[in-house]
Amino acid sequence: MLVLGCILSQWIWSQPLSNNSLNIQKDDPSLQEIERLLVEGYMHHYCFSTDTVLLNAFGYQKNELPTFTAEVVSARMKVLDANTPFQLVYNQSVQKFIDLYAVRRKDVTSKVLGLSQLYFPMIEECLTKYNIPLELKYLAIVESALNTTALSKVGAGGMWQFMPNTARIYGLDITSYIDERFDPYLATDAACKYLKHLYGVFGNWELALAAYNSGPTNVNKAIRRAGGSRDFWTIKTYLPKETQGYVPAFIAVNYIMNHVNEYNVYPKKPFLSCYQVDTVAVRGALHFEALSKIIDMPAKDIASLNGCYKLQEVPENGELHFITLPIPKVGVFLANENLIYAQSGLLIKKNQSAPEVIAASEPIPTKAIEKTIWEEQWKSHKVKKGENIASVAKKYNVTTREIKDWNRLKSNSLKSGQTIKIKTKVKKAASGNSEVESTDPSTSTPKNNNTPKNTPSPAKPKTYTVKSGDTLYKIASKNNLSLEELKKLNPKVSTNLKVGQKIIVSK
């Protein structure tokens, strides 16, 4: 982190901050004008309005709730059905969900219409990339109402409501700092992969949707109980209760989103449109509160655009991270980048609480004092039939990304019989003059040595050799240290590490 060499002192964070006190730099006016013209050009061709008067072509009263006969709705549905690979049928199950989205959850539908202007272009781009139907964008409404921070009671998270295990299988990282289920782009990419896989398994989009909701095994069981039928409406009663309404809800959303104005429902003005945001790479530890003060944007708005950062903080862990910001704020960010990292470092340091120290009731004998050191070793793993990168990662308590980096893998797929490298940690415990090495602490027993020895000479500090891509944070984690502990051991070491450099990791 860029705490070292920070230009401001700690007391700043206890005082009200003004823009002037931080000497914030303004963005380049000429570059701002170029961005304004680009966005203006996009918006000129952007066919979206929240003007209720303009959209109310049917002259409805404000709270009027239009109704239509089954024949009218069925006829409209047949038009939609003719232009999609889905079977968009009309029945009473579908009508219940039409009433839900057009009447009982009318306010939610209005909000979704606005959010669709931010997320649908991105979702459609991803669907096109995987060559799957564009109508699947409506599935994100059924799942989360386009809420990128949604979290269900059972632990499904994000716009596409991934459970943790499924998320990891499709390449989404979940750590103490980051949960990529809440990154709208990465989660959409993972959802596209999963949906395409399910369609390949069942050869039927309705069954693929049911499997997305309840899992492929539940759909298989329902097919068996229905005598082998692969028609959703035939197997419906054998599916879990929630899944029985999942496909009808998807059909209803398809219909409502194409006939929303006929139901006197209009979009709520979105926070931003897709043409008004951009991503920017982050080169150090960053805290949303520090960023908020410097770019003059509410931290809650930054968090709503970057929900994958669980602690509202971007870690410095040797990996490349990105944040999404409104386009005018990107220029301010780049003009004040070093200041943002410096302020973030101070804030993160302030928020770190000291570990609790518990005094022992009696002095501990010297023999009982044991120091634990972790050493790294490489292990070869031969992939077995049925194993995937997520299951291997879980077995060795590492991340899928680490396995991909260690083996230079471009995808998450593994082949049976393939040999991959895994970096493991071996526990080496030293107690007095006795020493033990073990990968399993429960089986570790000290070696007996009753032979008197001369007083040993002071042990040399243990060092770590810097490798390509290492950071102080990464080295600290590898050696079971906090960043502050590592800095105390190496007071003269800067954050600009060089390959081959020696870093002390224990005395």
Entry keywords:
9 strands, disordered N terminus, single chain, Lysozyme, alpha+beta, three-stranded antiparallel β-sheet, Membrane-bound Lytic Murein Transglycosylase D, Chain A, flat
Topology of helices and strands:
Layout: H1 29-44, H2 52-55, H3 70-81, H4 92-104, H5 106-129, H6 139-144, H7 164-169, H8 184-202, H9 205-214, H10 216-225, H11 232-235, H12 241-244, H13 246-258, E1 277-282, E2 286-287, H14 288-295, H15 299-305, E3 313-314, E4 321-326, H16 327-335, H17 337-351, E5 370-382, H18 389-396, H19 400-407, E6 419-431, E7 434-438, E8 462-465, H20 472-478, H21 483-489, E9 502-506
What do you see in this structure?
With 507 residues, this protein is of the alpha+beta class. It folds into 4 domains: 10-42 and 273-351, no CATH class; 52-263, Orthogonal Bundle (Lysozyme), CATH 1.10.530.10; 365-448, Roll (Membrane-bound Lytic Murein Transglycosylase D, Chain A), CATH 3.10.350; 461-507, Roll (Membrane-bound Lytic Murein Transglycosylase D, Chain A). It is 41% helix and 11% strand. It is built from 21 helices and 9 strands. The protein has helices at 29-44, 52-55, 70-81, 92-104, 106-129, 139-144, 164-169, 184-202, 205-214, 216-225, 232-235, 241-244, 246-258, 288-295, 299-305, 327-335, 337-351, 389-396, 400-407, 472-478, 483-489; strands at 277-282, 286-287, 313-314, 321-326, 370-382, 419-431, 434-438, 462-465, 502-506. Strands 5-6-7 form a 3-stranded antiparallel sheet. Strands 1-4 form a two-stranded antiparallel ribbon. The chain has a two-stranded antiparallel ribbon with strand order 2-3. α8 (184-202) packs across α9. The longest helix is centred in the first third of the chain and has 24 residues, at 106-129. The protein is flat and about 85 Å long.
